[in-house]
Design goal:
alpha+beta, three-stranded antiparallel sheet, 2 helices, 15% strand
Length: 92
Amino acid sequence: MGASRPHYSRQEFARRGDDIYDRVVAPRLGEEDLGKFVLMDIDSEDYEIDPDEVAASDRLLARRPEARVWFTRAGSRYAHRFGGPRRLLPPT
């Protein structure tokens, strides 16, 4: 049996992912990376950047098969957006 890994709550998983993005990944990003997917292993802090999230995932998981992956887009806090454009409601 393999070594035991800590269990993270959803909040801690997200906190760790955001911290790695801010501390490790963001300082290394260039203009050409904006909008690309960033996939990070929250345990090792290893990451991949690619316009194709599957390609980035394949490379990260090839190196780190046990990775716990947090992903986002470079320059955004969200990997995907659902729905149409945001509309403001008129005051009532």
